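Please decode residue identities from the backbone states below.
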């Protein structure tokens, strides 16, 4: 039985890409039906990895977004999480939040160093909160 697809959108106004989409239980077809690479309409199966706890895709666009803005997509698969171990959730959230933060700020040419560590911390905190909200909502359904 196919699990219910969840697509949550979070928008922050400071750094492009502004929109963060969190997908839960997505298949390759779900991703291809809802998103495209920034430079093409087609996503090939071998460009997607739907195995493991999660993966981050950047330089994507939501197909129905008339603004055609780049976004970041986190594809999460809670079935791979250890549901008896809260540390597993915390680890997975932190892991994916780090990837997203790096990609968002790298897109803006902001490199991690002593002068930018506070910016990284704020952005990573926001991304972590978004992931937590989506996973918590999924658990409560």
């Amino acid at each position: 039985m196919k699990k219910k697809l969840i697509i949550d959108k979070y928008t922050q106004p400071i750094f492009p890409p502004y929109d963060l989409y969190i997908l839960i239980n997505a298949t390759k077809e779900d991703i291809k039906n809802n998103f495209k690479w920034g430079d093409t309409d087609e996503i090939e199966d071998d460009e997607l990895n739907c195995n493991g706890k999660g993966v981050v895709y950047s330089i994507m666009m939501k197909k129905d977004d008339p603004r055609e803005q780049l976004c970041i997509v986190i594809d999460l698969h809670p079935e791979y999480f250890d549901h008896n171990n809260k540390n597993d959730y915390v680890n997975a959230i932190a892991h994916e939040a780090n990837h997203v933060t790096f990609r968002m700020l790298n897109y803006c040419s902001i490199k991690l160093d002593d002068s930018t560590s506070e910016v990284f911390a704020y952005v990573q905190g926001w991304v972590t909160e978004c992931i937590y909200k989506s996973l918590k909502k999924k658990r409560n359904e």
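Observation: The mean pLDDT is 89.
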